[in-house]
Write a sequence for this structure.
């Protein structure tokens, strides 16, 4: 694109310096996007060859489908956000495509088909991907400037609380395997928490932009820490209480960790006070320990984390309320080794329940090995890095905070899921963004990428060329001699 | 399918996946080692300035000082103090507005800034000028409060409330 950005021809004065225009890097994005579609197609063919000894029949339609979706997304970005970051769209497309392959691969498992855990998941996930990219396109087209979101600061707060409380409404909410985080609308299960993540980031950004001076400056120094005033501490206590309440009533450890973590990250960025991080960690630790001590569902997760082998044995002995998944996931990672068993040649379907959603990373760990999982984590890290980079480049505080909040939440979610599956922290029922099977997650994360793209477009766009100023000739310039 | 083919595909896939990661990192390398944008801008500016000098040498200004100003033409605006510290804006002949208004080029979140506080623009010779737009608390170039549009020397601090910006090469 850079070659087409010719400087404006000077019309009103010969010495006007034309807008040179930063390179938009859309061609870079297109090249990476082609790459990001080819890799999953390669993986798809590989799965078919390994399992059925033939190139899968759906290869062409699958490749065309993913390519078409990515292509439309690219054209819309080219038209409506020409200066946006060139990496976000290809990275998200690659992760989504690899997720589709892994879900299709688990669909082929007769074990999972027999217990109705998989079989037709991949076509559904492709449909969700299409919906997600449609929402992404809608965000890029209709959100002309991310700063309009600032007007909806407090509406966002109400909206986020509404979304979070929806699963508790009798008749609407569903209790699936111990967590009440789904609602059922017209036969579809929706996870409102995934969308609440984005809406809440808008509220935090708008709120902190206004209050950050009070939070940063009006504090007493005590033992090297800045203690905030009570009235400034109010909001953080409220958010903490809400996240604890989510934990108690919906028994959703992951979401409450995600919200509180996002708020602490944004507070730290807004105020530059380390004490907020100390407070945040202390409060989340206190909350988690408090809830874990009397909530059996959470208690069981912690037990499984501390001693997965004991949990496995109890589950094998048909004790109620125990799960063998945590140990099975670790075995899957272990049998993968450094280079993995190869696509379609692992046995991660033995995890049975939730093999293609919460535990999908175990499939990657077994079939692609450490090398593949490291590459995947780097892809996530690059998305988060581009988000933080967007925040650095943004020229308005609201955009900065929103970008850091969204990318922080994204990174935190990856950490919570990957850490849970790998046994670093207790397992939580969250989905790996883009990889895992689940409509709400894919759609919400595409919307998140859309907002990040919009902020990065505003941040990287060169300011418009000056209009011919009629006063310019008359301005008296005083030069110091 | 033979064992060999599958092994080749397995290793090939990992290689391709890592190749993508490496290519992606190459794309963002410019973040670490400066952007190509600035160089192109300065080269174009320099060429343009030479062209302008050839076409119409300004008679009332000393040739030497004019030449130095051109060679030392700033290419970017850098925020050095305040909440936006580290933000840079490439100078490409556009007017840069500063203030609390949401549509400013640099949105100042500062109680001492007016909504349309100041603007920075190039004059006909390409010299960058700062002009206070009738702000309440004033715009300071070095220590002096601005009363009229004033050319900005390279590296001179422009203070608006708690924010300090300067022009750099």
């Amino acid at each position: 694109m850079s070659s087409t950005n010719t400087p404006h021809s000077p019309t009103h004065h010969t010495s006007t310096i034309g807008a040179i225009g930063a390179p938009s890097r859309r061609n870079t994005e297109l090249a990476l996007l082609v790459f990001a579609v080819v890799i999953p197609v390669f993986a798809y063919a590989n799965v078919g060859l390994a399992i059925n000894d033939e190139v899968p029949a759906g290869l062409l339609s699958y490749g065309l489908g993913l390519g078409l979706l990515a292509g439309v997304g690219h054209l819309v970005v080219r038209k409506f956000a020409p200066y946006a970051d060139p990496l976000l769209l290809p990275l998200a497309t690659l992760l989504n495509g690899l997720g589709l392959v892994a879900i299709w691969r688990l669909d082929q498992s007769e074990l999972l088909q027999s217990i109705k855990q998989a079989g037709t998941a991949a076509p559904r996930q492709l449909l969700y991907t299409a919906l997600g990219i449609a929402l992404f396109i809608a965000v890029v087209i209709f959100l002309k400037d991310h700063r309009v979101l600032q007007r909806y600061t407090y509406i966002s707060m109400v909206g986020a609380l509404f979304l979070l409380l929806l699963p508790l409404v009798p008749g609407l909410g569903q209790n699936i395997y111990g967590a009440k985080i789904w609602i059922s609308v017209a036969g579809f299960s929706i996870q409102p928490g995934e969308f609440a993540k984005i809406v809440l980031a808008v509220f935090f950004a708008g709120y902190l932009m206004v209050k950050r001076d009070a939070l940063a400056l009006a504090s007493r120094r005590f033992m090297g820490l800045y203690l905030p005033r009570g009235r400034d501490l109010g909001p953080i206590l409220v958010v903490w209480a809400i996240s604890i309440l989510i934990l108690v009533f919906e028994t959703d450890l992951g979401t409450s960790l995600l919200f509180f973590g996002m708020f602490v990250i944004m507070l730290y960025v807004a105020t530059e006070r380390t004490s907020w991080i100390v407070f945040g960690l202390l409060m989340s630790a206190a909350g988690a320990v408090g809830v874990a001590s009397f909530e059996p569902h959470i208690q069981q997760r912690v037990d499984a984390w501390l001693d997965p082998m004991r949990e496995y044995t109890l589950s094998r002995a048909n004790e109620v309320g125990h799960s063998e998944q945590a140990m099975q996931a670790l075995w899957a990672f272990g049998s993968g080794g450094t280079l993995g068993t190869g696509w379609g040649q692992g046995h991660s379907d033995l995890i049975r329940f939730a093999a293609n959603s919460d535990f999908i990373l175990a499939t990657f760990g077994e079939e692609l090995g450490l090398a593949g999982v490291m590459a995947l984590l780097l892809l996530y890290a690059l998305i988060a890095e581009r988000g933080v980079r967007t925040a650095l480049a943004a020229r308005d505080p609201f955009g900065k905070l929103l970008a850091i909040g969204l990318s922080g939440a994204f990174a935190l979610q990856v950490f919570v899921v990957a850490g849970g599956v790998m046994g670093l922290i207790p397992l939580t029922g969250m989905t790996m963004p883009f990889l895992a099977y689940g409509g709400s997650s894919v759609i919400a994360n595409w919307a998140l990428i859309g907002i990040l793209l919009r902020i990065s477009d505003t941040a990287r766009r060169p300011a418009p060329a000056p209009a011919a100023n009629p006063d310019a000739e008359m301005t008296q310039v005083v030069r110091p001699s | 399918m033979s064992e060999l083919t599958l092994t080749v595909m397995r290793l090939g896939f990992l290689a391709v996946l890592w190749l993508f990661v490496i290519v992606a990192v190459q794309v963002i390398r410019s973040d670490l080692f400066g952007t190509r944008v600035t160089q192109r801008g300065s080269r174009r500016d320099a060429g343009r300035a030479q062209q302008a000098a050839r076409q119409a040498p300004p008679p009332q200004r000393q040739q030497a000082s004019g030449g130095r100003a051109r060679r030392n033409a700033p290419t970017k605006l850098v925020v050095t103090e305040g909440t936006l510290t580290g933000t840079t804006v490439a100078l490409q002949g556009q007017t840069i507005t500063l203030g609390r208004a949401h549509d400013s080029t640099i949105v100042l979140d500062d109680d001492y800034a007016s909504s349309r506080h100041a603007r920075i623009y190039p004059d006909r010779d390409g010299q960058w000028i700062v002009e206070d737009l009738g702000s309440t608390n004033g715009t300071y170039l070095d220590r002096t409060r601005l009363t009229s549009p004033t050319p900005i020397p390279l590296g001179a601090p422009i203070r608006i409330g708690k924010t300090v910006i300067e022009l750099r090469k």
Notes: DSSP finds four helices and eleven strands in chain B. Chain B touches chain A through 62 residues (CB under 8 Å).
